[in-house]
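Narrative of accomplishments. A recurring question from our advisory board has been how the design workflow behaves on a single, concrete structure rather than in aggregate. To address it, we present the structure tokens for one chain from the evaluation set, followed by the sequence designed for it. No filtering or post-editing was applied between the two.
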């Protein structure tokens, strides 16, 4: 579990480019489906799923299933220190995920996204 008492696990989880972008996208969108993330980051589904599983195992993310789709959001059990660090990163470095956000926006709204991309 990611807490202020385990900063090493938090920083290890975020030390990968793909994982950091995934967390930042989820922060912007609130909740994102795996197929949306694969399109936004232009990566394969197995790679995205592997990184999401690691982020879920370390306590950064929570998921919910809806039929064949899996949606990810920040874990409600994240402590204030971890949330503060993530928010500061999001506020200061939003440009870091600008291309991925643009691809996500270009997918359209969720019903259209699911029909066309998932």
């Amino acid at each position: 579990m990611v807490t202020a008492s385990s900063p090493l696990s938090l920083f290890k989880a975020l030390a990968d480019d793909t994982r950091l972008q995934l967390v930042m996208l989820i922060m912007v969108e609130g909740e994102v489906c795996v197929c949306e993330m694969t399109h936004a980051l232009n990566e394969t589904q197995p790679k995205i799923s592997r990184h999401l599983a690691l982020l879920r195992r370390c306590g950064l993310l929570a998921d919910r299933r809806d039929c064949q789709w899996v949606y990810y959001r920040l874990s409600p059990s994240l402590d204030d220190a971890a949330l503060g660090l993530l928010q500061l990163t999001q506020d200061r470095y939003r440009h870091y995920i600008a291309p991925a956000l643009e691809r996500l926006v270009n997918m359209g709204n969720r019903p259209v996204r699911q029909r066309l991309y998932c």
